[in-house]
Amino acid sequence: MTKVAFIGAGSVVFTQGLLADLFGLDLGPLHIALHDIDPERLDTAAAAASYLAQDRPVQITAHLERRAALADADFVINIVQVGMNAATKIDFEIPARYGIRQTIGDTLGVGGVFRALRTFPVLRGLAQDIADVCPDTWLLNYTNPMVMNVWYLKALGVRNVVGLCHSVYWTMQGLSELVGVPYDDVTYLAAGVNHQSWVLRFERGAENLYDRLDEAIAADPELLRRVRVDMYRRLGFYPTETSEHSSEYVPWYLSHAAEIDRLRLPIGAYLEIVAENLASYEQTRHAVKAGEAVEVEPTMEYAPQIIHSIVTGTPRAVYANVPNTGLIPNLQSGAVVEVPCLVDASGVHPTAVGELPPQCAALNRSYLNVAELAVQAAINHDPRAIRQAVMVDPATAAALPVEQIWALCNDLVVAHHNYLDPSLRAALK
């Protein structure tokens, strides 16, 4: 029996989607172990999982204690969100007082850095538990900020950890539709860092589909009002995350009101997503309590596919976030990069992509500088490195002078005090 542990299973909607994918694959008997620290959310997740399992050979257990869920797990799926909605609101509201505009705030910038810092203590406990009770497990991480979290887990010595995100897949689905070519007919190569990878090749047979994309943009001027179309026109390669995300990783857009208007950037968009997620959770909670049907659409996420390939030996290609061991030579060695990977019975095998175009690598290096300093703050117990990470963040540096950056970090350290390592709680002048 294959055991899959979900850490943060109270993220009920996402948990359901992953389970629907898992249950749709031929994996034989499964043990699904659900862990969350919120009893009500855990009960809701377990009830929804039982409904989705129906008559399949699936054992479902629910655990408030993490080690019990992890014991002898073959796979661990991490979807924790430390601080939940209240912490997310803080990450938007305090920076907004300083004039910082954010759209999603979960990857880079001040929102991404502090989301990582409050997640790291939980990841450290998770890493220790894995070392003790399931050292050979595959840890499949979905929790953002992806690069910082996977980098930190590798620094802690977790052997089999990969970060998973659907941005490459859905970007290519959208581009295929935009150029009028069925997705199944398209071949492509993307690489870079999570939420800022680049479509290096986009083809159908010998046809370069970038030519069709140029035609589509020329035919529809409204496409020019998307950040990633703007970035593509100027950089020559299409970025693999939404315009809302992409705007936060560069200095050119969010600090300028005219650009926000031109590119229709929704400031604080993630707060609306949080509200929608809460509403979806309440619908699920009501449905399972009432014994009603729980409707779940397949998600096409990579974690179930990886589990299937390792369990059955079925080879497939996915995109994953892994340490840069020469995979992209013009990005920092040891940093976490996003590249295509082959998955088979022996595990996940990253593909060496080669050097990125210099303009793309330059932006990725700026992104990785922030991530590296945030990780070093936690590893070295260095509160100054928190401020330095935010100082070198492109969007924050474009918006604030350095004294205000330090003051902002001091305010966020106080606001997130209970979640941070004690060594990082000091306010600094």
What does this structure look like?
The N and C termini lie far apart (55 Å). The strands form 3 sheets. A 6-stranded parallel β-sheet has the order 3-2-1-4-5-6, sandwiched between helices. Strands 7, 8, 9 and 10 form a 4-stranded antiparallel β-sheet that branches. The protein is globular and about 55 Å long. It has 17 helices and 13 strands. The protein has 429 residues and is an alpha/beta fold.
Report the total helices. 17
Please report which band the strand proportion falls in: under 5%, 5-15%, 15-25%, 25-35%, 35-45% or over 45%: 15-25%
Shape: globular
Mean pLDDT: 95
Q: Order of SSEs, N→C?
A: EHEHEHEHHEHEHEEEHHEHHHHEEEHHHH
Give the oligomeric state.
Answer: single chain
Radius of gyration equals 21 Å
Q: How would a crystallographer describe the biggest sheet? A: 6 strands, parallel
State the distance separating the first and last CA atoms.
Answer: 55 Å
Structural class: alpha/beta
How would you write the strand order of the largest sheet? 3-2-1-4-5-6
The number of strands is: 13
